[in-house]
């Protein structure tokens, strides 16, 4: 991803904050830049470490509060991972695709899957039970191709 695209994604998130009447603090900007700068699935602890490198002096509690408020505002999404820490992403928008997470139970790697790919399953579950699955909120567990071959 180019630096221009990254800047646009962070700028979009900052614009959303301002449109909501929210402050754009150093901590919030550092969290947004950290989430946007990596394709990795970061938990709060990894975000704290990365923000500490990007913006020394931002307290860990401030980073956790920033993650919580950005998530409640819909600018950041979080995914619960069974047996592990919650991971965070910038929320899908014009320049970001909504996706769900798959995690290999053996090697613990994550794989992203477009939410649309789960639509047939969601429709079947909704029709048969009335339950509406939120595919972006929790990781689905399974075994990746590499681990199945071992």
From TrEMBL:
Signal peptide: none annotated. Belongs to the Fur family. The keyword Cytoplasm does not apply. The keyword Phosphoprotein does not apply. This is Fur family transcriptional regulator. Keywords: DNA-binding, Repressor, Transcription, Transcription regulation, Zinc. CDD domains: Fur_like (cd07153).
């Amino acid at each position: 991803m180019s630096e221009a695209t990254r800047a646009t994604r962070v700028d979009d998130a900052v614009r959303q904050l301002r449109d909501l009447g929210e402050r754009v603090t150093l901590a919030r900007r550092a969290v947004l830049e950290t989430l946007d700068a990596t394709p990795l699935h970061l938990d709060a602890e990894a975000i704290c470490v990365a923000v500490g490198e990007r913006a020394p002096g931002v307290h860990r509690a401030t980073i956790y509060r920033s993650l919580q408020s950005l998530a409640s505002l819909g600018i950041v999404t979080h995914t619960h991972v069974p047996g592990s820490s919650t991971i965070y992403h910038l929320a899908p928008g014009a320049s970001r695709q909504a996706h769900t997470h798959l995690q290999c139970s053996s090697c613990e790697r994550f794989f992203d899957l477009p939410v649309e790919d789960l639509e047939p399953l969601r429709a079947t579950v909704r029709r048969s039970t009335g339950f509406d699955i939120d595919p972006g909120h929790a990781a689905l567990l399974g075994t990746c191709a590499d681990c199945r071959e071992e």
